Amino acid sequence: MLQLLLGCLLLKTTAESLIPREKLVSDSSNADKFALSPDGKTVGFVSPDANKTRNVFTWRISERQKKQVTFEKIDVIEFMWTGVPDIILFSQDNNGDENTMIFKKNISENAPPLERMVISNTPRVQATLVANNQKDGHVLIGINDETPEYHNVYKFDLLTNELSLVFNNTRFSVESIRTDNDMLIRLAYDQQD
To answer: Which residues belong to the signal peptide in this entry (predicted)?
Structure first.
């Protein structure tokens, strides 16, 4: 997967300019965590840092070197690019408690390196990404803030940090909620026994 991604990124260059996997990440088990930025100029990935904590790194194709962009003490589970340049989302739980939190992080050059914003950090509540088309200034987040089994769906504005309820869910698993390319909920299904 990693080789395919890098090969696609560098199709217009010569074979000797491919970035060796060892330079990107020494732990190849993280190869499924790689993602290309919406502008196609940066690869992002989750990898252990110097303290062996999994954090987010980026690799700008033009600069040919990786850069750590999150500095968490608890492992990052995954990260996502967004439709707002230099804004990523990443998720983590509290040492395996499965109460996943989603954070917003500005990774631009002038952003404070340790600053990030948690979207939901209520104890015993899980947040999950429902939709992210990587072109709009918002994403849809599922939060099981009323009932543990069901995630309400909220629109999170990446510029204003406003969280607004889109779908009050009392019946469907978050995995069964489907959106279209504009992140409008179009379908929710329930399995019958």
So the answer is: 1-15
Report the predicted TM-score, pTM, of the whole model to 2 decimal places.
0.82
The beta-strand segments (E) located in the chain are 35-36, 42-48, 54-60, 65-68, 78-81, 87-92, 101-106, 117-118, 127-131, 138-147, 150-157, 163-167, 177-179, 185-188
Distances (CA, A) of 168 to 85, 142, 145, 178, 185: 30, 10, 10, 15, 12
Task: Quote the DSSP letter at residue 33.
Answer: G
Instruction: Give the integer Cα–Cα distance in Å for 164 and 175.
Output: 20
Cα 143 to chain center, whole Å? 16
Task: Kindly state the tokens that stand for 180.
Answer: 């279209």
> How is residue 111 annotated by DSSP?
S
Do the Cβ atoms of 85 and 65 come closer than 8 Å? Answer: no
Provide the 3-class DSSP secondary structure of residue 138: strand
Instruction: Walk along the chain (193 residues) and give the pLDDT tens digit of each residue.
Output: 444 444 444 444 444 456 566 655 555 554 457 899 999 999 999 999 999 999 999 998 887 778 999 999 999 999 999 999 999 999 998 767 778 999 999 999 999 999 999 998 888 899 999 999 999 999 999 999 999 999 999 999 999 999 999 999 999 999 999 999 999 999 999 877 6
How far is residue 171 from each of residues 31, 117, 141, 158, measured CA to CA in Å? 35, 30, 17, 28
